[in-house]
């Protein structure tokens, strides 16, 4: 196994925040360390589309000055973070991993970015991602490489966010998730990724893939770090018509809630279908860990993931095509072949099929609610497979066969269709050293239940203390 | 989920052996002009997509109605579960 995290860049966000608050360490020191790490690793991992070093240093200096004057904005004050390159950033180009928007510089920022900045966070860069978050990378931008094995994919679409966090290039990131795009790369890169309830985090200023399935959420190395990010970005936003006004809980204050009475549901259809045996061993071990914590595990029935994901693909395909129609008409060649194909195919989805899928969605939500009546959370793998090799992977192969994308999101997609909150946390490593993600799902707006359960599990393991092997060897080479 | 045969709700398309001209016409109606070369490249993907869509439309969901989403709240907003 790899060495334990010890560098300043590899410490938890909450740990660094405490040291900055106590003025044992300055934001500029931390920011410079992170920028140095980015400088050493980004060329190897292709993590960022834009690195905002100058702005980051300015923000860090402001943070240090404010903290010196006794103005402390909270746990993110002075902390270097990144955002996926689909969030509008005023004055900083926002490409969405595409050539269509290669030189687009927004005049305003996404609500998520504004909230991070109001909290005093330091933006170190815009993270690489699948082109428009739709299944594969643009070949001119290229894939992000997995910090655990650089010949392997990070998964996506929030690929750069996951790799950056895993490799210590920032203490957290914000990604988006329409079929699994936060949780799958979090699982493949051995970090924590959360997709909150639909409406919990504003979509305003996030370039959409599918407006009714898009979720924005935090990615970090620990559950507490994820909670810290969610605390800042969650909450009602009048600029997002689907934003919820359900009050936001004090996530960080309640992480150590009692989980000894937790009722966990597992369903065979979400546990053993097409799963890599080495991943299944770790998931079953995690179930036993939860039982040791006092949780009661029971088998329940859930609607078929295959049918739900087909429904999601119908909605996603049509909504994505509708959004992209003007540029698909005016500059089709600016899209990669695979994304162009997905959009063109989505455009010919019959209207009746889209409406039927929305009917099904209401029904699936009701079925999920009913299935969760007697359990607090669901437990399942985040992905049936570990990080695949980049060569020939769906994200780079150019193959736009819709069945391939559907299979990839079989365990995550159902909760984008229903909008239920879900989190992926590391639950161990396979024999070849690849991380495996455990997914927990809760009822709508019960993010606190998810975070508390994930935190309790995390405290009983040491999976998030490991430094990715590729990062260790690259840093050794640089030194 | 319960299924029905889809005969009353298949969107007027047939995933089995869709002709390139039909794809071009449907795409044109959707606002996209496709060259012959482009249509040829799309045929297998369209057929696979429509096959997947067929697996959606055969699931019976007539007891639910998405229009509930449009119910107004206080005259300006939209309700959400």
Describe the structure in your own words.
Chain A has 479 residues and is α/β, with parallel strands linked by helices. Chain A is built from 16 helices and 13 strands. Chain A has helices at residues 13-21, 27-45, 53-68, 111-118, 159-166, 183-189, 223-233, 277-292, 305-330, 337-347, 351-371, 394-397, 402-408, 413-418, 447-459, 469-478, and strands spanning 48-51, 80-84, 122-127, 145-146, 149-153, 172-177, 192-195, 215-220, 263-266, 296-299, 377-381, 422-429, 435-442. In chain A, helix 2 (27-45) packs antiparallel against helix 3. The longest helix of chain A is centred in the middle third of the chain and has 26 residues, at 305-330. Chain A is globular. Helices cover 41% and strands 5% of the residues of chain B. Chain B contains two helices and two strands. Chain B has a two-stranded antiparallel ribbon. The two termini of chain B are 22 Å apart. Mean pLDDT of chain B is 75; it is low at 4-15. Chain A binds chain B through residues 198-199, 241-242, 244, 303-304, 307, 310-311, 313-314, 317, 321, 325, 328-329, 341, 344-353, 355-363, 365-366, 400-403, 406, 419, 444, and chain B through 1, 9-13, 23, 26-27, 30-34, 38, 41-42, 44-46, 48-49, 52-53, 55-57, 59, 61-66, 68, 78, 80-81.
Low-confidence blocks of residues of chain A: none
Distance between the termini of chain A: 21 Å
How many E-type strands of chain B? Answer: 2
Tell me about the largest β-sheet of chain B. Answer: 2 strands, antiparallel
Assembly level: heterodimer
- What portion of residues of chain A is helical? 40-55%
Q: What share of the residues of chain B lie within helices?
A: 40-55%
């Amino acid at each position: 196994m790899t060495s334990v995290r010890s560098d300043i860049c590899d410490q938890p966000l909450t740990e660094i925040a405490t040291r900055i608050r106590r003025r044992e360490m300055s934001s500029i020191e931390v920011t410079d360390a992170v920028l140095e790490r980015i400088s050493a690793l980004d060329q190897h991992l292709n993590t960022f589309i834009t690195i905002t070093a100058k702005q980051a240093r300015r923000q860090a200096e402001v943070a240090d000055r404010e903290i010196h004057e006794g103005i402390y904005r909270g746990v993110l004050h002075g902390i270097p973070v990144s955002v996926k390159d689909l969030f509008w950033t005023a004055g900083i180009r926002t490409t969405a991993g595409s050539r269509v928007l290669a030189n687009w510089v927004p005049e305003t920022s996404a609500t998520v970015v504004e909230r991070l900045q109001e909290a005093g966070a330091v933006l170190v860069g815009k993270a690489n991602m699948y082109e428009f978050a739709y299944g594969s990378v643009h070949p001119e931008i290229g894939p992000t490489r997995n910090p655990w094995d650089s010949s392997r994919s990070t998964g996506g679409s929030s690929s750069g966010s996951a790799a950056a966090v895993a490799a210590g290039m920032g203490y957290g990131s914000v990604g988006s998730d329409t079929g699994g795009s936060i949780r799958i790369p979090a699982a493949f890169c051995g970090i924590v990724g959360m997709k909150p309830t639909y409406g919990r985090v504003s979509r305003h200023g996030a370039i959409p893939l599918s407006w009714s399935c898009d979720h924005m959420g935090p990615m970090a190395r620990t559950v507490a770090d994820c909670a810290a990010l969610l605390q800042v970005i969650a909450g009602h936003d009048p600029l997002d018509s689907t934003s919820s006004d359900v009050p936001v809980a004090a996530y960080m204050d309640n992480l150590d809630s009692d989980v000894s009475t937790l009722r966990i549901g597992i369903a065979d259809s979400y546990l053993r279908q097409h799963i890599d045996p080495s991943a299944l061993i770790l998931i079953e071990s995690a179930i036993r860990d939860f039982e040791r914590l006092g949780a009661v595990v029971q088998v329940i029935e859930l609607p078929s993931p295959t049918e739900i994901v087909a429904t999601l693909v119908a909605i996603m395909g049509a909504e994505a095509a509708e959004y992209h129609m003007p540029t698909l008409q005016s500059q089709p060649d600016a899209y990669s072949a695979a994304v162009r194909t997905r959009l063109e195919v989505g455009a010919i989805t019959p209207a009746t099929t889209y409406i039927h899928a929305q009917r099904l969605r209401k029904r699936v939500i009701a079925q999920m609610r009913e299935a969760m009546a007697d359990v607090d959370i669901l437990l399942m793998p985040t992905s049936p497979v570990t990080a695949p090799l980049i060569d020939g992977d769906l994200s780079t192969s150019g193959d736009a066969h819709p069945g391939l994308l559907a299979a990839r999101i079989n365990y995550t997609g159902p909760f984008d269709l229903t909008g239920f909150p879900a989190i992926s946390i590391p639950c161990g490593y396979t024999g070849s050293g690849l991380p495996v993600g455990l997914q927990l799902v809760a009822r709508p707006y019960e993010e606190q239940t998810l975070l508390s359960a994930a935190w309790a599990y995390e405290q009983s393991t040491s999976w998030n203390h490991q430094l990715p092997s590729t990062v260790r060897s690259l840093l050794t080479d640089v030194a | 989920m319960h299924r029905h045969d889809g005969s009353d709700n298949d969107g007027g398309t047939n995933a089995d052996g869709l002709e390139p001209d039909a794809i071009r016409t449907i795409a044109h109606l959707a606002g996209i002009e496709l060259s012959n070369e482009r249509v040829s490249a799309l045929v297998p993907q369209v057929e696979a997509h429509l096959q997947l869509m067929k697996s959606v439309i055969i699931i019976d969901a007539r007891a639910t109605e998405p229009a509930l989403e449009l119910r107004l709240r206080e005259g300006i907003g939209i309700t959400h579960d």
